[in-house]
Design a protein that fits this description.
It is a single chain. This protein is an all-alpha fold and 160 residues long. The chain contains seven helices and no strands. Helix 1 runs antiparallel to helix 7, helix 2 runs antiparallel to helix 3 and helix 5 runs antiparallel to helix 7. 12% of the residues are buried. Belongs to the EamA transporter family. Keywords: Membrane, Transmembrane, Transmembrane helix. It is found in: Membrane.
């Protein structure tokens, strides 16, 4: 789609990395109590445009309309934990993360950059383990290893 051709090893690595992500996430793959349409809001907030501004504004509009529709309103809970959390979310998790992502896309092939994104569930799971003492099952540990192998195969340097 982006004009970049993947080698057979990169396709294999991508498939393995996806399988690893599914293994790490298998216990979390539930819909929960939210209505089914609410899950579509997340997809609707990701426009095809690469502009971070459009992405963020679309997400804010869709989630804002959803909050109004279900009756939660738009008032922010100005608590001690909310403000630092929002600072982290806006400046670190959004602006810094997107800056690193777009810089990486300029410096490296898209296949290598996307392979690194497969490590996100792995990092999230390890942070949850360290900060909240979340349990680490054998399936999750297996998923960590599988994801690492897939990322290695996808991102490794091809011989000419």
């Amino acid at each position: 789609m982006l004009g970049e051709r993947l080698s057979a090893w990169q396709w294999l690595g991508t498939g393995i990395a996806v399988a690893g992500v599914l293994l790490v996430s298998v216990d979390s793959l539930t819909f929960g109590a939210a209505p089914l349409w609410a899950y579509g809001v997340t997809l609707g907030a990701m426009p095809v445009h690469q502009s971070l501004c459009i992405h963020s504004l679309t997400g804010a509009a869709l989630f804002g309309l959803s909050a109004l529709w279900i009756g939660d309103g738009l008032a922010l809970p100005m608590t001690r934990s909310f403000v630092p959390g929002m600072v982290w979310l806006v400046f670190i998790a959004t602006f810094l993360a997107y800056s690193v992502y777009y810089t990486a896309l300029r410096l490296y092939p898209a296949a290598k950059v996307s392979a690194a994104i497969y490590l996100s569930p792995r990092v999230t799971m390890l942070w949850a383990r360290a900060l909240f003492d979340d349990p680490l099952s054998m399936v999750m540990a297996l998923g960590l290893g599988v994801t690492r192998i897939g990322v290695f195969l996808t991102a490794r340097r091809e011989r000419p």
